[in-house]
Amino acid sequence: MRSLCFFLRRTATQRRAFSDFAAHSPPPLPVLIVGAGPVGLTLSILLSQYGVPSLLVDKRKRLPEHPQAHFLNNRTMEIFRKMEGLTAEIETKQPPVDQWRRFVYCTTLAGPVLGTVDHLRPEDLTSKRSPTAVAHFSQHHLLPLLYAKAQRLGQTVHKNYDFSSQWASITPEPAPILMGYECVSIMSNSKGVNARISASQGVTRQVVDLACQYVVAADGAGSPIRKMIGITMEGEAEMQKLISVHFFSKELGQLLLSTPEPGMLYFVFNPKVIAVVVAHNLEAGEFVAQIPFYPPQQRLEDFTSEVCHDIILEVVGKRDLAVEVKTVKQWVMHAQVADRFTDKHKRVILAGDAVHRFPPAGGFGLNTGVQDAHNLAWKLGAVIKGYASEALLATYEVERKPIAKANTALSVANFKAALAVPAALGLHPSAARVVHEAINSRVGMLLPKKLQSAVLEGIFAVGRAQVSSAFLSDFNPIAAVRVSEMQRILKEGHSLQLQFPAEDLGFRYREGALIPEVKQSPSRERVAAPMGRRLEYLPSTQPGARLPHFPIIIHQHTFPSSSNATCSTLDLVSESEIDLVLIVGCNNSGCTWTEAAVTSAKSLSVKVRVVIMWPPGLETKMGESEELSVQRRVSAFKDRVVHAEQADQGWWELCGVPDVGAILVRPDEHVAWRSLNLPDRSSAEHLHRAFAEVFPALASPTSTQQCA
Ligand SMILES: Cc1cc2nc3c(=O)[nH]c(=O)nc-3n(C[C@H](O)[C@H](O)[C@H](O)COP(=O)(O)OP(=O)(O)OC[C@H]3O[C@@H](n4cnc5c(N)ncnc54)[C@H](O)[C@@H]3O)c2cc1C
């Protein structure tokens, strides 16, 4: 780990400190990360793995215990897989999949059940499309694991950081994490950022000004930094307000585990309450109940532990149940993306909820944020290490904003689909909103507060009566029609979905640090046939797509290697080196691509590793003439070449690329460029342009024309 030293001012005004910025000899802090939520912590770990110095601050002194997000999608699990084995730990610690694969629709948790949907298909749990799978693991349990991974990388967590003795040291520890430290102001110019950090220590308050090259604001949905730098959110604000009640009940956990089909989410509709219960862990009896919240007629203070306890018993449908209410919070659902992802000087960069806020339907919030961090880490690393110019950082917004917008639209569509079920049962959520808006109107507000609440509750109670057990009885013909309509919606996959393979693994950057193809290959651009609202993932090596997963054996520079362990093509990309990977076939074309890549990389000082992809059964092929000649030709570039063997037939077919072509992969496992053709005299030039596109500073001026 490179040593770092920071510019630190404790007494002068921030403005003066900032004007002094360039004059000071100690280099500024390369990256300040504000916010140690899942996004800030992920970025901190990824930067540590690259050996890029950073500092992470969070205003919280303790880790939050209130559960929030809980669904980790496949791509997030792939990213975590390369963070000190985090995925393996999540896989062993998460509840068994049979306890969370379903959504259950019911009138109370104790029954009766109106319908269930199993969201996992066999292919979701095999290693066919990914070396890992989706997981159900709560954010408040994930955060301690992230801290532990950071600590394993040598990062230390401090609650009382003594700036005077430790901070100004010439070689402070790598990437410290400071808890209880708030970023209270930010000023940037084209050279860097001055961030003021404040911490209360006992009765005194410590304030320091830090000069930084870059600040990443991963400071959550309310992002104070986003406001400081004047970035606004676009889209629909305040779609719904919710009360989130965290409670424990072992008895309830056991009750639900004893049912034939336990679930992750329980949608409860009954005359007393409508709620969504998240079963964070049935064995541990840990739950969250999400209840619609209508301020100002309802106030957070009204939801005391006793009131929430009562609501939960109504949700369960059993009065004699032991329930312990831990915390009650409110939260607001938005569907918004920031108008810009950086400040005007491109020194303050937003990530995670700070830059996009989605409805939780589909669980894209945390996942999109982790993937922002993954996109940003190698770019920041490349710029700070001097491999690329700052132009590379501009591609962060170009690539991530369309993904944020697409995931917002998907979450909104999924949220609306979730409303189809209560609507089928005669509960129209839009009607609830209209009633609430009417009461909030000028006329409604003239009513005394208590009367407003009574009117609101009275109207909602009439609505909820639609789902009373008497109303939903078998003898009520209207109810029978409604329940069968609801079951049709569930069966046809038109309700809230959990799995989005096409968007999870199949999201693709259309422009950015890549060379798009002029001619889109129609066979690879086809859209998967929809199954309800779920689209399947289709592997693609179109530039911008995630490299498809395929089982391989890596033989490094010598082969056959002693280890025959099967791993993934994703493992060809390093988590500690910021370099490019060129995948070529084991043939004469592969050798020509290798020679061209080595020459171009040398002229640009770009780090490239070439992977020669051997067909399966390497040992039996060793004596064959083409393989021997490949081995001989590439032996000159031994330290740049890795030999990988397909564990099964079909890598090139999966990629839609002939084995005489080439695939260039970025440090975040996304394809930067590919050739569907044999190498020719312009191959070195194509590669040169592709390398320069990914690491812009290192190129001589190139045309921006697209490759055919
Ligand atoms: C009650 C609740 C329930 C939720 N439920 C779900 C759900 O069911 N499903 C889902 O997908 N998503 C859910 N979410 C959203 C999900 O939790 C977020 O998408 C996720 O936390 C985003 O991570 P983040 O790291 O971007 O931000 P956060 O997790 O919000 O972390 C931001 C961090 O920044 C710190 N911070 C803020 N300002 C400063 C400052 N000035 N200086 C220093 N530190 C600062 C904060 O203390 C915090 O630790 C929920 C959110 C809430 C609040």
Question: Strands, helices and their partners?
Answer:
Blueprint: E1 7-9, H1 14-19, E2 29-34, H2 38-50, E3 54-58, E4 71-72, H3 74-81, H4 86-93, E5 102-106, E6 113-118, H5 122-125, E7 135-136, H6 139-152, E8 157-158, H7 163-167, E9 177-179, E10 182-189, E11 192-201, E12 204-217, H8 224-228, E13 233-248, H9 250-257, E14 265-269, E15 274-281, E16 286-292, H10 305-316, E17 324-338, E18 348-350, E19 356-357, H11 364-384, H12 391-424, H13 429-440, H14 442-445, H15 449-464, H16 477-491, H17 501-504, H18 522-525, E20 551-554, E21 566-568, E22 580-585, H19 588-604, E23 608-614, H20 618-621, H21 625-634, E24 641-646, H22 651-655, E25 662-665, E26 671-675, H23 683-694
Parallel strand pairs: 2-3, 2-12, 3-9, 5-14, 8-9, 12-18, 22-23, 23-24
Antiparallel strand pairs: 1-12, 4-7, 5-6, 10-11, 11-12, 13-16, 13-17, 14-15, 15-16, 17-19, 20-21, 20-24, 22-25, 25-26
Helix pairs in contact: 2-6, 2-11, 11-12, 12-16, 13-15, 19-21, 19-23
Flavin-adenine dinucleotide (FAD) is lined by residues 34-40, 57-60, 68-69, 139, 182-183, 218-221, 224, 244, 329, 331, 352-353, 360, 363, 365-366, 369.
Features:
708 residues; alpha/beta; FAD/NAD(P)-binding domain; nine-stranded mixed beta sheet; eight-stranded mixed beta sheet; disordered N terminus; disordered C terminus; flavoprotein; FAD-binding domain-containing protein; 3-demethoxyubiquinol 3-hydroxylase activity; FAD-bd; FAD binding
Low-confidence stretches: 1-25, 165-171, 699-708
Number of strands: 26
Helix content: 25-40%
CATH superfamily of the largest domain: FAD/NAD(P)-binding domain
- Count of distinct structural domains: 3
What's the N-to-C terminus distance?
A: 41 Å
CATH topology of the largest domain: FAD/NAD(P)-binding domain
How many distinct helices?
A: 23
CATH class identity of the largest domain: Alpha Beta
Q: What small molecules are bound in this structure? A: flavin-adenine dinucleotide
In terms of structural class, how would the helical and strand content be classed? Answer: alpha/beta
Overall 3D form? globular
Mean pLDDT: 86
Q: For this entry, what is the oligomeric state of its chains?
A: single chain
